[in-house]
Amino acid sequence: GRGEGLADGLSLSLTKGHIRPWDVEQGANGNCWVMSALAAVAERPNLIRRLFAQDVPDARGRYDVRLYSLLEGRWVTHIIDDRLPVLNFDSEAGLSLAYAKISNDGQLWPALLEKAMAKHMGGYAAMDGGSSSFALGTLLGTPREKLIDAYHCDNGDWNLWKIRWSDDHASNPESYDSHRVSSSTFLDMLADARRSGFVMCAS
């Protein structure tokens, strides 16, 4: 958007006044677990907006983004700018973002939140593989003891895992508590969670 070959034809802003799950598009990183969590939380736009201290960047292009530390049990603020990693320049196609994309109508929030998550975790490479429950807890401020991962078993049952992390890296679980439930019981649990307004996603 600065005449440097990336999104120069778009009018860019944080949200364009609206936030939608389909604004989220994954890039060249194995972080579907982050992207699915962003899309799920985007069903409630105010939960995304509250993560940003401002709607527009400061004079140096910086945003203050709040994320929840599952290790420390508190919100932390990360200062990021609006410069995003790109792939090699192509003289015909121009630049393209390496990771989360800018939405078709010029919204930056998915790419900026992904950048804040990368800073929170120690870099983009640290997001290559992880747990959606970790991402949801980080975005929503949910204590780690209330997060549940569900994994489908070969016999049709589901394993429900409560994961404890030793740090703020989703690929470093400290330990697991798990129990198995039948498919019908799990579907009932999903229905109850939906009625109760829980945020859920799959990756």
Short description:
With about 200 residues, this protein is an alpha+beta fold. The protein is built from five helices and five strands. The strands form two sheets. Strands 3-4-5 form a three-stranded antiparallel β-sheet. A two-stranded antiparallel sheet has the order 1-2.
Give structural notes:
The chain is an alpha+beta fold and 203 residues long. It has helices at 32-41, 45-49, 109-121, 132-140, 183-195; strands spanning 62-69, 74-81, 149-152, 158-165, 173-181. It has two domains: 21-140, no CATH class; 144-195, no CATH class. 25% of the residues lie in helices and 18% in strands. The strands form two sheets. Strands 3-4-5 form a three-stranded antiparallel β-sheet. The longest helix is centred in the middle third of the chain and has 13 residues, at 109-121. It is elongated, with a radius of gyration of 18 Å. Belongs to the peptidase C2 family. GO terms for molecular function: calcium-dependent cysteine-type endopeptidase activity.
